[in-house]
Amino acid sequence: MPLNGHGKPPANYPSKNIPSIAKTRYRVTKSVLQQNLSTNQNAAAPQEAAPPIAAVPKCVITVKRIIGSDKESTVDHEDPNNHEMVAGRLHLTLYSTELDRSGREKKVTAVAEKGTRRGEDQLVEFECSFSVPRTFGKVGAVTVQNEHEDETLLVSTIALDGLPSPTTTTTTFLTFNCNSHISPLIQNRDLRIFFSDKSYLPAQTPDGLKRLRDLDLENLRGDGTGERKESDRIYDYDVYNDLADPDSSPHLARPVLGGREHPYPRRCRTGRGPTKTGGLCNEIQEAKSLDAPGKIYFPTPD
């Protein structure tokens, strides 16, 4: 733009070609504000949290077949070349010591379909894998359901390798020392629960394990009703009121042991019905109530 001697444009210069300082300043300010607003929006936008990476720990369940079941096992123990238990499976659920944000239990499940024989001592190893998120917390309990048709198994150990650590990026190893019998689900539907080796006082039991501990205690105590089955784990006690057989002969009447008149240690309660002639104080003898005479009820050992 041409200027005269006073530093101003000539009088005949078109005014529309003169740049407006106010307009220029407005354009610059608007551009800067738009850039700042865009930057602030990008900074304030919530970042979606990446889903916690799930670990896949390997689980090995070592069990032993109980010799003497009513039916033959699906494993041919006489054949050293037979290495698999084909029929049946084990259903496992891991429980965390923590609850989720909604107050529900954290749990993951897996199924072990087949077992492999180890050696010649009737040991069978089942394997499965869990998908455990990093936010799962510490594993405090595991439940096992024996889905074999008629075979009771002695579960020795449940070993978990590769569990996610709640504080580091490393993995941990955990073993449940069970050493307990598990009846087929068709015989006993009570949930078999195994807890970790860490002990808690009742008031210090983690929230994620409280319901399971109460449930396991109920399974052991029973409700005082019904007749005991061979697969039960109930520890309930009664006097010895099954020593007599008055229905067969009056000469076979016997006193009740365990009351005030004849103090005696208690026996496991069986819940059998009373005799016809002895009244409510006498129970039918166990040998006459069970299918196989001579069997005596005792809770399935843990």
UniProtKB/TrEMBL annotation:
Residues 1-20, 248-280 are annotated as: Disordered. It comes from the Eukaryota. GO terms for biological process: fatty acid biosynthetic process; lipid oxidation; oxylipin biosynthetic process. Keywords: Dioxygenase, Fatty acid biosynthesis, Fatty acid metabolism, Lipid biosynthesis, Lipid metabolism, Metal-binding, Oxidoreductase, Oxylipin biosynthesis. One of its GO terms (molecular function) is oxidoreductase activity, acting on single donors with incorporation of molecular oxygen, incorporation of two atoms of oxygen. Residues 69-196 form the PLAT domain. Residues 199-302 form the Lipoxygenase domain. The keyword Nucleotide-binding does not apply. The keyword Lipid metabolism applies. InterPro entries: LipOase, LipOase_C, LipOase_C_sf, LipOase_plant, PLAT/LH2_dom, PLAT/LH2_dom_sf. SMART domains: LH2 (SM00308). Pfam families: Lipoxygenase. PROSITE patterns: LIPOXYGENASE_3, PLAT. PANTHER family: LIPOXYGENASE. Belongs to the lipoxygenase family. This is Uncharacterized protein.
